[in-house]
Known about the structure:
- The protein is an alpha+beta fold.
- Helix content is 50%, strand content 7%.
- It has helices at 6-16, 23-43, 47-50, 77-89, 109-125, 133-153, 164-178, 183-196, 212-231, 249-253, 268-272, 286-299, 315-321, 330-333, 337-347, 357-362, 365-370, 379-386, 422-437, 443-452, 463-471, and strands at 66-67, 74-75, 97-98, 102-103, 306-313, 373-377, 395-401, 410-412.
- The protein has a four-stranded mixed sheet. A two-stranded antiparallel ribbon has the order 1-2.
- The longest helix is centred in the N-terminal third of the chain and has 21 residues, at 23-43.
- The protein is globular.
- The termini are far apart.
Amino acid sequence: MQVFDEVIEEVAAYVTEEQQFSEEAYRNARYVLLDSVGCAILAQKYPECTKHLGPIVPGIQTPNGARVPGTSYELDPVQAAFNIGLLIRWLDYNDTWLAEEWGHPSDNLGGILALADYLSRKRLSEGKSPLTMKEVLYRSIQAHEIQGILALSNSMNRQGIDHVLFVKISTTAVAAAMLGGTKQQVMNAVSNAWIDNGSLRTYRHFPNTGSRKSWAAGDATSRGVRLALMAMKDEMGYPTALSAKTWGFQDVMLDGKELTLPREMKDYVMENVLFKISFPAEFHAQTAAECAVTLHDQVKGRVEEVKEVVIETQESAKRIIDKTGELNNPADRDHCIQYITAVGLLLGELEADHYEDDFALAHPEIDQLREKIKVVENADYTVEYLHPEKRSIANAVTVHFVDGSTTERIEVRYPIGHRERRQEGYPLLEAKFLKNMEVRYTKKRTKDLLNFHNEEKLPNKEVQTYFNELVEQGGL
């Protein structure tokens, strides 16, 4: 066996050797699945999302393929991964991880769920035992860990590369392992994923912010499944894909800086994952939205009297979601801390519909207030954001009026979805699921589906049975 770059070797060992994970990790994995499915169903309310669903070529059928929750589609696992990943990510409402790089580890569920359903149905057709949902939870913990540990010390955004590169790496590794790949085959697949490199972040920033940011993760997780399937045919790998002089990833993309895994991979990321519970907004702005909603009663009826709104935030938020000027579409608005805060101050709430063009045009006062918002970095917030034992995502909001008076300064250091507020968050995640699922299902059916995800029932459920529950109502 050729010697592969250390990061590639460690990732392959992690997914091919048996791991023992904590009860907390499995509990969070269940809630990640619950929340991701709810996000996928809610996204089906929006035509700009659903137009991307289905096979690449209309009319193509894949008997016993992978199903897409809430729809009647049966697709090959690569295209199913794109569909499911796109749905989970569309509204920017699924879980989050913040470090040197940020991202949404549940994006990997696009590939994991699609491949699990395909493999279960295939095994049944061959007279073999299907997969259980315990396998989905196990692989979800692993995908979270790979993506999240890579993100701790390796910043792609500073190189202009989108964070979904880490989704592709993670999905490739776990997908190859799910397919029964050897360590060599997993390394071959992962090396090809690194050679793929990643997409530019330009679709997340002015002047190109657009809807690609909502399907980029689906694209990445589906590519991971594709590379894993190729590896199972013994497609070759590239041992120094990262470290090769001049042509390797590190020299090309990182100016020679070594890519690292700064801590041993186990279940740290799933235990500390951030759930996006209260607001469908970029996570760096979650606590700003919470501050704004708290201040709503002090601001309502006085909007014309507002002189300035000051948002204190972390360096990462200032760099990526501090936006002035025209916002051209929903993708622009849900990544603008000023817009998010203005809506919270004006309405006392923030929902996905508030980013739509029709809503924005009907509420010009949002942009009027946005012009009065000043965003400043709070150095303490930046330090705590990067601290491994804190990882806060703090914001503070203060409103100043023309008469010289001010509101109280509202500060929130940890959003509800943070580990520091975990017990407060679990019931709210369930409520969020119930609300989201009512886009496609009756209230009774939705409650049944919530119960279906409980600790006793879910792990032992066969994967194809789980999907039956989500598609039997028909759909798109």
